[in-house]
Amino acid sequence: MVSTHTGIEWTDRTWNPTTGCNKVSPGCTHCYAEAITKRFTQNFPQGFALTLHRERLQEPKRWRKPSRIFVNSMSDLFHEEVPFSFLKEVFEVIRETPWHIYQILTKRHERLVDLADQLDWHENIWMGVSVENQDYIHRVDYLRKIPAKVRFLSCEPLLGALQLDLTDIHWVIVGGESGNRYRPMKLEWAQSIRDQCNSDHVAFFFKQWGGRTSKAGGRLLDGQIWDEMPEAWNLHRQQREEYLTLSNRKSRKARLTA
Ligand code: SF4
Predict the structure, then answer these.
(1) Is there a domain that residue 6 lies in?
(2) If you measure from the C-alpha of residue 31 to the centroid of ligand 1, how many angstroms do you get, rounded to a whole number?
(3) What ipTM was predicted for this assembly?
(4) How many independent structural domains does the chain possess?
(5) Is residue 3 part of a domain?
(6) Does residue 155 lie in a domain region?
(7) Ligand 1 center to residue 76 CA distance, Å?
(8) 21 touches 37 (CB < 8 A)
(9) Phi, psi of 133 (to 5 degrees)
């Protein structure tokens, strides 16, 4: 069985109802998901071909601990080969598990917008697009059209300077590439995005510098860790505490009456 726990700093676990993908922009060149499928071939008999995992659909219902869940760390949920009916089932599970936050990240901004009207944007969905350089800045305009509680940008691997319009954007993640063939991120690119976020009051998360390994360059930007989360996260955490207290009370009562 593939572990759903993750070392990704901005999430708690991953859920991969689909795996596999194909490359659409320069951020994909050294795709981490593809590398994993090549390394652990026994877990991915279909390789990096888009594969639906219907048997995983109900997994989040079994995870009682409220978590931030990164949907499809090994794929792209809005990939053209994911049938709309399957996408609807994923969104249905999200609706049925309001104690979790679902972080969905795509590079398929056009399909996202095409299908958005037919999907239910529950409160616990955070929707993001990847923006690796200025050529893909238009993905942000597509994202702005999505009625998600939180809209976020993942600028990882950051491959160039970005001039962002952060209107209606709640959270920005920045990270450098890691792996043997990593493309270094410049200090001024990361500083500029942080400064744009600060002046527009948008939460900024600096994930890593990258390098030969993801931890090689550390996480400090100008001597500081930047782990800001969107405002919605604080609210969800309060609700999560209430949920845990309620669920603990219920289990105690069940034990006492057993
Ligand atoms: S969209 Fe994501 S999963 Fe798909 S090839 Fe690009 S980096 Fe990999």
Answers:
(1) no
(2) 6
(3) 0.99
(4) 1
(5) no
(6) yes
(7) 6
(8) no
(9) -155, 175
Q: How many CA atoms lie within 13 A of 129 on its CB side?
A: 25
Cα torsion at 141, 144, 146, 151 (round to 10°)?
Answer: 120
Give the model confidence (pLDDT) of 12-53 as tens digits.
999 999 999 999 999 999 999 999 999 999 999 999 999 999
Identity of residue 38 = K
Counting beta carbons within 10 angstroms of the beta carbon of residue 240, is it exposed (0 to 12), middle (13 to 18) or buried (19 or more)?
Answer: middle
Ligand 1: which of 107, 111, 159 to mutate, judged by most atoms within 8 Å of the beta carbon?
A: 107
Which amino acid appears at position 242 of this protein?
E
Atom of ligand 1 nearest to the CA of 25: 6
Give me the domain span that covers residue 194. 13-257
Give the position of tokens 């993801």.
214
Structure tokens at 103: 């972080």
Is 98 within the bounds of a domain?
yes
- Residue 217 has which token pair? 């360059």
d(CA 193, CA 168): 16
What is the distance in angstroms between the CA of the first residue and the CA of the last residue of the chain? 34
